[in-house]
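thread: overnight batch results

M.L. [08:02]
morning all. the overnight job finished for the chain we discussed friday. pasting input first so we're all looking at the same thing
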Amino acid sequence: MNGNNDWIYWLLAGSIPYNIEKHNIQNGRVFSIRALFWSLEIHSWKGKRYRWMIRVPLIERCRNAIWAAITHFQRDAPPEG
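M.L. [08:03]
and the structure it wrote out:
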């Protein structure tokens, strides 16, 4: 492995699903796929309605950290006026 290209191997390894499940819920089914860097859930109901939920935890964590920093700085800011 070349040190410059290690990120490619991590990206590939994190993209491979490690868990695939399908189970029944009331009036429908849930199909879920999980990988290190992403997850997908498909909810289907007997009325042919579908709900897709794609999650990328790294982006969610970054978003939450940025939001926490913004609220912290807003709380510590001196009052205007």
